[in-house]
């Protein structure tokens, strides 16, 4: 099959990030030659710790999915992650080589840096151990057994070298770590006293040329001051062990995953592959005569290298050696022979004996492909492991400059460079003698492969980072391909891969930005192609069969027997033989077709089994229902092609609608019953584990190491443990493997909890299960919640909902960086993986910190963290982390409501004079927005904290300044010459303090009078005034005495008086407390007797006093108070400030409504007259009664003649109507009084609409709905019912052409319509706390329409 062409996705031109970091550091490239540096890229898994469950914190910063880079120049190393510097290292001498290595039982990878005189070893936390080298070292190589150190041939050194831990020259700081108990107990002397094994030059003979560093340092208690002796390194040749002395082989490659080493012998012109093995023996110590130096009882460990392959015929060493995987899932070692322009691959044979893997290479087990460059990549099977190693493909560059992708020796596709790069970025022009030649760009090399990314070197000298498409965007396609890779026979899967990659219709392989739907369609197309091929072969076989009666007779046994006994005269018996011979060729062809048919049938059966396992796994995830519906159609097509009636019937029972496409299954006896997880789970719950059939579990779920159906495997393992399955090592008797966290257990439920912790199965995962499946697991959690064992990990307690026990879990010894994270973060890092998502909720930085430089750090001025006092910092604590986790809405609310930082103003980099005026205008608009933020913050932080009575309350700043990001965040303030800034900030500061006081919880006990006085400033200010109002709203001002109240009043500070009056009224709400009432009436001139001296009280204080009276007398329907407040609504103007006069009337209306709150129908007898007077204030017709007169004039009307605003004798409804409407709404709230509704009507005619102000119509709509409280319904129809027909008819006809007069009428109708709809929406606010989503979805289109 011809290979398909795929377009290579170029990420961009590649440049080592270390060069960029050096440029930011100010390092001049002229000081160091450009070629005097080296680098290598590596996968994050290289530096990841082995035990992620116990070391989540330490590895979180180094495993974010980006490629890592080690950049080496001179004596410096820069470790970067993506486009961010992670760590820097400096050394006293030049760095010769650096590599990653894992040693012994250490869980973390070690960075080994070779210098001229020393070897420095770092762990991922930055701790260092420096080992001095007594002689010259050529290179170091990582192995699973330790670090292989290659000695210089001429290196001589002394016999005894002391290496002891207390030596100051050994290390700058000992590495403290937890070790496994085996091999390090005082009773077991199975390890040497130091990890460095040396062989020394004695008796004038050459020592070992290779050393093994098995551990950087021993435990502090194990590091005794002992003279270390040599531990020889051996090679095994022809069955005999020999010490490596003059090792002619040049080491060119080692593996840090498997104990393999490759070398090249220049004299013999051959490559060799060696396997490292451990030999435990004291024989060589005795033979070397050094037994007097070795402590008694110490069992030495030697390393032996055994040659398992050698290949001759190469003039030079291989330029590249790496591990890959053959097409039949066998590991191979690849040698790139540049001179021969080929990639030689040697198949590696491995056998597991006694829990140890023995490696070997069988003869004639090698093959080669043409290549001048090659790199290992992970493309076709991104999540499949073959033993300890991943499945690795090969990207090869041929001498014809073609990029080919291989899966083993099977070529899958050809990659081409994008055409637009060739036209713009990958071409150059050479001009000579007025002629220009455009050279075609070709790939000339491959380097730095990591996962599915590789560097492509082109003939222009540039390097481009490219990515090979490996993982589909569709999770369903990804699951299916992974399942097939894990379940299918290698030959079957290779056939599928060839078809998948060679088919040009596979859109998700050909295009990087392909859609999810196209990926699934392409996958289905490939699978159905296999199905059609199987059908074609079957059709071919059926067509080759005999169709005529004569051919049937000739092929029958009767004809053969008859021909033997009755030969016809003249026709020799040979004729029949010739006839049979002609038939034999046809039978041979039929056997070939039969083999091809069986191949495709077996392939489709395995595909059906693997995809059915995915289907069963997806059914256990409620968020994958759409994927299940897509997958079942493909499964039905496959089952129909294979004539699997049992599978078709099974799928149609899950999706009955499929019967329309595939028909009903008629056969009563199904040839095979498909596995069913739900059937297995039901059997376990009903009859126990022993009654459940293993055949109900898909084979892929029972296969160890699978990732495609790991979700279902976890559920099966939980149910198996819950129903009493037997534990067999790492597996269960049900055939599935499982992982259990450390901790004791006495019941099956406790074992299930530990298994859920070990499998990283938390509450979020539990919510993804169907309700019936999750219920037994939730029941197991509930049974363990009351008294769980005390030795469980914190994650188990979090899973049970026992965060109190999780906090008390002992913290394991941590490194300094981990301790810092633990103290700053909290339990979130201790209870991985279930609290791994519960990071501290803070505002994320809006300035991208791409490079972390020590002397050049960017300050994120647009972020909000714990150090900024914005009045909301107390919310973001551990409990908030538990409630919200990664939900960023809380962060966004805090970001929006923060008024303690300057606001960004977008301006040009070089502003002009007009731009400065624009800045001031924009800053004025933003300042008005900032002044409104305390209202939202007060609601956001309401009753969220408790204060200490020994601490003063901190009020966040209200910053009205702005900053200019385009001008290095320069601060700009409001111009005081344009506007009075202090007047602007007065009441906003008051509300800011109210918001700060509202965050105090009202249930923390009785507030101390001393604390309130303690917070009282020496000079009255608006901040303390707002705090008084907040304390009053919480009911804390009852602790103040009359003397305290008088002292506040005597300060004659307007804001303080307003805050105190409203706060006292809120604290004494509905009590009619006489002393407080008297103090309030002093501020209402209507209550002053005629002989009382006239006080010049600001209208603001009078308005606050009126509202306070309403709160004090709330619900009392006190007649005299109602009479006073009614008179204040219609009071004549006492000044020339019309706005204050309207506010005064509204305050009186609110107060009157509060006094008679909901008592309009059961109040005293004068209520009818009071209502008539209120309707007169609204503008309705007068209905005078015999009691009307005493309500028409205020008691102090003779004093209201000095105002400059002339009211006349009629009522000014523009002033009185709002207060009167509010009073009626509160008096008759929830009464559904038809009389009041009929009089408080919405205008129904053109004249009424012209007579009533539009904003008054909105107030009437709100008032009517407050009266009809129970009839408010959140629906669009209800909102439309509030609009009169005359208004709706006019709105519907707005599209018609109208003259100027009609335009004026239309404007009135539009304003009326808008105010009516707004009033209806405000009325719906009473339901928003019950059905907020429905309320939001209802109002959103209304707001968009308006």
From TrEMBL:
Highest taxon above the source species: Eukaryota
Pathway the protein takes part in: Protein modification; protein ubiquitination
Record carries keyword Cell membrane: no
InterPro entries listed in its UniProt record: Apc1 (IPR024990), Apc1_MidN (IPR046794), Apc1_N (IPR049255), ARM-like (IPR011989)
Primary location: nucleus
Annotated GO MF terms: molecular adaptor activity
Name the UniProt record assigns to this protein: Anaphase-promoting complex subunit 1
Domain Anaphase-promoting complex subunit 1 N-terminal: 34-281, 318-526
Species classification: Eukaryota, Viridiplantae, Streptophyta, Embryophyta, Tracheophyta
Compartments where found: Nucleus
Matching Pfam families: ANAPC1 (PF12859), Apc1_MidN (PF20518)
A single BP term in Gene Ontology: cell division
Domain Anaphase-promoting complex subunit 1 middle: 541-698, 742-806
Keywords, comma-separated and alphabetical: Cell cycle, Cell division, Mitosis, Nucleus, Repeat, Ubl conjugation pathway
GO cellular component: anaphase-promoting complex
Homology family: Belongs to the APC1 family.
């Amino acid at each position: 099959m011809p290979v398909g062409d795929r377009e290579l996705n170029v990420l961009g031109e590649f440049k080592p990030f270390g060069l960029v970091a050096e440029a930011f550091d100010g390092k001049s490239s002229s000081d160091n030659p450009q070629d005097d540096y080296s680098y290598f890229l590596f996968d994050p898994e290289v530096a990841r710790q082995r035990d992620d469950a116990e070391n989540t914190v330490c590895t979180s910063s180094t495993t974010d999915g980006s490629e890592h880079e080690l950049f080496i120049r001179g004596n410096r190393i820069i470790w970067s992650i993506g486009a961010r510097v992670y760590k820097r290292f400096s050394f006293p001498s030049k760095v010769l080589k650096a590599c990653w290595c894992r040693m012994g039982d250490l869980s973390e990878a070690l960075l080994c840096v070779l210098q001229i005189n020393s070897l420095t070893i770092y762990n991922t936390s930055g701790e260092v151990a420096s080992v001095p080298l007594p002689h010259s070292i050529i290179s170091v190589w990582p192995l699973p057994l330790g670090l292989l150190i290659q000695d210089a041939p001429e290196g001589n050194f002394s016999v005894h070298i002391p290496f002891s831990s207390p030596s100051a020259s050994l290390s700058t700081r000992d590495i403290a770590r937890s070790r496994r108990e085996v091999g390090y107990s005082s009773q077991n002397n199975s390890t040497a006293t130091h990890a460095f094994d040396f062989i020394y030059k004695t008796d004038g003979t050459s020592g070992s040329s290779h050393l093994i560093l098995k551990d950087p340092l021993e435990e502090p208690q194990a590091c005794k001051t002992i003279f270390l002796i040599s531990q020889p390194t051996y090679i095994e040749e022809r069955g005999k062990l020999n010490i490596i002395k003059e090792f002619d082989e040049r080491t060119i490659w080692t593996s840090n995953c498997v104990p393999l080493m490759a070398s090249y012998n220049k004299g013999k012109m051959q490559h060799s592959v060696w396997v490292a093995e451990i030999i435990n023996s004291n024989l060589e110590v005795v033979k070397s005569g050094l037994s007097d130096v070795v402590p008694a009882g110490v069992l030495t460990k030697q390393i032996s290298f055994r040659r398992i392959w050698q290949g001759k015929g190469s003039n030079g060493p291989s330029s590249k050696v790496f591990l890959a995987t053959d097409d039949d899932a066998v590991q191979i070692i690849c040698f790139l022979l540049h001179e021969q322009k080929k990639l030689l691959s040697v198949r590696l044979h491995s056998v597991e004996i006694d829990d140890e893997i023995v490696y070997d290479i069988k003869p004639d087990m090698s093959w080669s492909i043409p290549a001048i460059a090659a790199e290992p990549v992970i493309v076709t099977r991104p999540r499949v492991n073959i033993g300890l190693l991943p499945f690795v493909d090969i990207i090869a560059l041929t001498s014809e400059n073609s990029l080919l992708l291989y899966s083993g020796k099977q070529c899958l596709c050809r990659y081409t460079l994008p055409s637009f790069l060739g036209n713009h970025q990958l071409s150059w022009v050479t001009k000579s003698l007025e002629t220009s030649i455009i050279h075609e760009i070709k790939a000339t090399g491959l380097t730095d492969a990591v996962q599915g990314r590789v560097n492509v070197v082109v003939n222009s000298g540039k390097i481009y980072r490219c990515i090979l498409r490996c993982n589909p965007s569709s999770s369903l396609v990804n699951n299916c391909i992974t399942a097939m890779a894990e379940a299918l026979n290698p030959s079957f899967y290779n056939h599928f891969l060839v078809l998948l990659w060679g088919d040009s219709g596979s859109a998700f392989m050909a295009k990087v930005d392909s859609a999810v739907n196209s990926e699934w369609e392409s996958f289905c197309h490939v699978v159905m192609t296999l199905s059609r091929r199987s059908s074609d072969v079957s059709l071919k076989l059926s067509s080759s069969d005999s169709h005529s009666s004569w051919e049937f007779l000739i092929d029958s046994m009767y004809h053969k027997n008859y021909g033997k006994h009755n030969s016809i005269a003249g026709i020799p018996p040979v004729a029949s033989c010739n006839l049979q011979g002609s038939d034999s060729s046809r039978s041979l062809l039929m056997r070939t077709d039969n083999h091809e048919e069986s191949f495709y049938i077996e392939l489709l059966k395995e595909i059906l089994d693997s995809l059915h396992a995915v289907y069963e796994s997806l059914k256990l995830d409620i968020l994958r229902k759409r994927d299940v519906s897509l997958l079942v159609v493909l499964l039905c097509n496959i089952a129909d092609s294979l004539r699997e009636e049992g599978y078709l019937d099974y799928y149609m029972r899950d999706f009955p609608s499929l019967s329309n496409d595939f028909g009903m299954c008629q056969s009563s006896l199904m040839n095979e019953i498909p596995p069913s997880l739900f059937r297995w789970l039901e059997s376990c719950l009903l009859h126990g584990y022993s009654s459940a059939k293993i055949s109900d579990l898909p084979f892929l779920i029972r296969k160890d190491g699978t990732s495609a159906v790991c979700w279902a495997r976890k559920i099966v393992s939980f149910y198996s443990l819950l129903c009493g399955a037997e534990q067999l090592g790492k597996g269960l008797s049900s055939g599935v493997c499982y992982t259990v966290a450390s901790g004791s257990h006495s019941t099956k439920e406790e074992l299930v909890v530990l298994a859920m912790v070990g499998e990283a199965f938390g509450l979020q995962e539990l919510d993804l299960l169907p309700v019936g499946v999750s219920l037994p697991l939730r029941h197991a959690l509930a049974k363990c919640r009351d008294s769980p064992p005390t030795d469980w990990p914190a994650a188990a307690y979090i899973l049970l909902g026992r965060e109190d026990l999780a906090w008390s879990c002992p913290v394991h010894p941590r490194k300094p960086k981990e301790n810092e994270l633990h103290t700053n973060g909290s339990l979130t890092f201790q209870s991985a993986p279930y609290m791994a998502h519960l990071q501290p909720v803070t505002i994320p930085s809006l300035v991208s910190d791409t490079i972390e430089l020590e002397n050049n750090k960017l300050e994120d001025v647009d972020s909000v963290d714990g150090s900024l006092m914005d009045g909301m910092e107390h919310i973001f604590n551990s409990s908030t982390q538990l409630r919200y986790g990664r939900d960023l809405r809380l962060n966004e609310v805090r970001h929006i409501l923060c008024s303690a930082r300057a606001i960004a103003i977008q301006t040009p980099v070089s502003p002009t004079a007009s731009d400065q005026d624009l800045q001031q205008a924009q800053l004025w608009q933003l300042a008005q927005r900032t002044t409104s933020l305390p209202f939202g913050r007060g609601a956001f932080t309401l009753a969220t904290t408790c204060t200490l009575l020994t601490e003063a309350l901190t009020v966040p700043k209200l910053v009205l300044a702005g900053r200019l990001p385009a001008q290095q965040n320069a601060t700009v303030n409001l111009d005081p010459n344009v506007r009075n800034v202090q007047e602007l900030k007065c009441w906003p500061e008051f509300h800011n303090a109210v918001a700060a006081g509202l965050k105090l919880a009202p249930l923390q006990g009785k507030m101390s009078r001393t604390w309130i006085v303690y917070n009282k400033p020496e000079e009255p200010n608006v901040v303390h005034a707002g705090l008084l109002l907040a304390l009053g709203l919480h009911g804390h001002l009852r602790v103040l005495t009359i003397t305290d109240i008088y002292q506040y009043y005597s300060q004659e500070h307007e804001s303080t008086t307003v805050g105190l009056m409203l706060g006292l009224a809120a604290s004494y709400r509905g009590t009619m407390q006489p002393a407080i009432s008297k103090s309030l009436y002093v501020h209402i001139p209507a209550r002053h007797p005629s002989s009382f001296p006239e006080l010049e009280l600001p209208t603001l204080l009078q308005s606050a006093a009126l509202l306070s009276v309403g709160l004090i007398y709330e619900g009392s329907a006190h007649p005299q108070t109602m009479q006073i407040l009614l008179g204040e609504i219609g009071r004549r103007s006492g000044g020339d400030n019309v706005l204050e006069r309207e506010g005064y009337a509204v305050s009186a209306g609110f107060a009157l409504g509060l006094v008679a709150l909901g008592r309009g129908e059961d109040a005293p007898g004068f209520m009818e007259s009071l209502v008539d007077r209120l309707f007169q204030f609204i503008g309705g017709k007068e209905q005078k009664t015999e009691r009307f007169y005493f309500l028409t004039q205020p008691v102090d009307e003779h004093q209201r003649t000095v105002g400059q605003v002339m009211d006349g004798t009629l009522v000014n409804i523009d002033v009185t109507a709002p207060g009167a409407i509010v009073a009626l709404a509160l008096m008759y709230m929830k009464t559904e009084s038809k009389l009041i509704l009929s009089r408080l009507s919405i205008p129904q005619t053109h004249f009424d609409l012209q007579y009533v102000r539009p904003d008054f119509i909105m107030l009437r709509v709100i008032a009517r709905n407050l009266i009809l409280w129970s009839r408010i319904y959140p629906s669009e129809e209800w909102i439309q019912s509030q609009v009169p027909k005359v208004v709706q008819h006019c709105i519907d006809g707005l599209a018609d052409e109208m003259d100027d007069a009609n335009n004026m009428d239309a404007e009135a109708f539009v304003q009326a319509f808008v105010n009516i709809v707004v009033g209806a929406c405000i009325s719906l606010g009473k339901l928003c706390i019950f059905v907020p989503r429905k309320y939001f979805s209802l109002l959103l289109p209304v707001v968009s329409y308006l």
